[in-house]
Amino acid sequence: TAETLYSFRLYARNGDNVITAPGDPATGTTLSASQPSLTLGTLADFGTVCTNSFATASFTLNGSNLNGTDIEVSSAFGELTFSDTQNRTYNSVYNISYIGNSVSTTVWVKFTPSFAGLYAGDIDITGAGLSPAYVITANGNGVDPVTPSVTTGSASAVANTIATISGTVNALGV
Fold first, then answer.
1. N or C: which end of the chain has fewer CB within 10 A?
2. What is the β-pairing status of strands 134-143 and 48-50?
3. For 113-134, what is each residue's pLDDT tens digit?
């Protein structure tokens, strides 16, 4: 138990396996358990993404002194989902299981903007004895896609097999 005072005496055994006289009485206090901690890598900005399309990015997560319960990655920001691999299924809540008291993994994040505009949302990382929650911010820009169009002018230099046409192609968008 942490912060508990114990009294004890030390004994030794000689080469003939005989226990020697006890040493002087001593005391010691148990230490508090180390606090759980995480180190989070950087999550790159998602940049500009068409609405109802998506972009992915990842960050590393390294934890120590954890208590064995799952780590939960989630966001109130509905445009973000999570996975352990870039090309697998993404979910709004991603649970990370680990063995022992430490973990080292990569978390994949998918940004799927539902409307045009700037996005900035927090990703919450909880569980495993972490208190308070760890937070990493995701940023992106949702844009409405533009339908490409072609506008032509009058034809000139018309011959039997050739003509010149002026025009403009509007292919802006993402």
1. N
2. parallel
3. 999 999 999 999 999 999 999 9
Residues 6+ apart with CB under 8 A from 158: none
- Beta carbons within 8 Å of 132's beta carbon, 6+ residues apart: none
The answer to whether 61 and 40 are in contact (CB under 8 A) is yes
The predicted pLDDT at position 9 comes to 84
- Who has greater pLDDT, 92 or 162? 92
Sheet bearing 80-83, strands edge to edge: 37-40, 55-64, 103-111, 80-83
For 92, the token pair is 């709004």
Token digits of residue 65 = 């002194």
Quickly tell me which residue has 């994949």 as its tokens. Answer: 108
CB count within 10 Å of CB 119 equals 18
Residue indicated by tokens 């790159």: 44
Look at residue 12 and tell me whether its pLDDT is greater than 60: yes
The answer to whether 94 and 74 are in contact (CB under 8 A) is yes
Residue 47 has pLDDT above 50, yes or no: yes
What is the tens place of the pLDDT at every residue in 13-44? 888 888 888 888 888 887 666 889 999 999 99
> Which secondary structure element, helix H or strand E, spans residue 38, and what is its range?
strand 37-40
The rounded distance, in Å, linking the Cα atoms of 112 and 80 is 7
| Separation of first and last alpha carbons in the chain | 59
